[in-house]
Structure of beta-fructofuranosidase:
Amino acid sequence: MFKLPEAWVWDFWTVDDGDRYHLFFLYASRALRDPHARHYRASVGHAVSSDLVSWERVADALVRSDAPAFDDLATWTGSVVRHPDGRWFMFYTGATLDPSGANLQSIGYATSTDLVTWDKAPGPVLAADPRWYEKLSDGLWHDEAFRDPWVVADPDGDGWHMLITARANHGEAFDRGVVGHAWSPDLETWELLPPLSEPVHGFGQLEVFQTADVDGRHVLLFNCLAEDTSAARRATGTTGGIWVTEVASPLGPINIGKAQQLTDDSLYVGKFVTDRETGETKFLAFLNASDDGFVGEISDPMLASWDGPTLVLSPVRERVAVP
């Protein structure tokens, strides 16, 4: 488990450099007292591990920029990939406030040669486009949702794709959550494209995507709390939490309506990680809701596997040394 006595830890993403696992995480001081205030104080921390269990905190990766800037309020969730030239690219969400105090989100990136020291590129490189995506001026949501970039290589070798937490520019307010989409030939220049999913499934937002291969089957993971779902979904008793849907490839086709709820809201922002020693798919998430309120820690790994059509989580089996 990863936790900090002085700070809440929540959204995170991982990367394996072949020797160590790297954990990049959002954190904010518990001195704020109100957990909801953490979002406007978030920085990106960094820890490393050899086993996904014991973590060593190292130097922070990113902090907000001086105003005026697209990330002068906070640096939020992202992902890390490696360019063929060896550079690491961290894509992240920049948050700022408009003159009315509303939150505007857009996407930038930073680069590193060692996963430790990061240099921000001028940004943002992507923002919501009203041709396909909802803007704050539509007045249906509390912020301009355009965040949580998840970047993957094209399955056929044609550049890179980014999946984005976004909202469609049409539909009912609590149906508008979609899989935003952009493409790049080189990780530096980006073209925004129409969403990969339809806004008809009762999710107001689909947060923090991940695509993964679990025992040979492709899945798309996203997160949504109950208060961000439609009245029809809430009427079924959903608690919100972590969701997965099986897909043919990282680019779909994506049917959000077929998503299964993997966990309730005690866990949030899950991530699948391949254990390079065993080949097993491990699963981590941050500890979210408890009887005492918000927790703000990252779980120990669990084992992800299939039970027929259902993806299930179970405790990691202890490995016994053979004499």
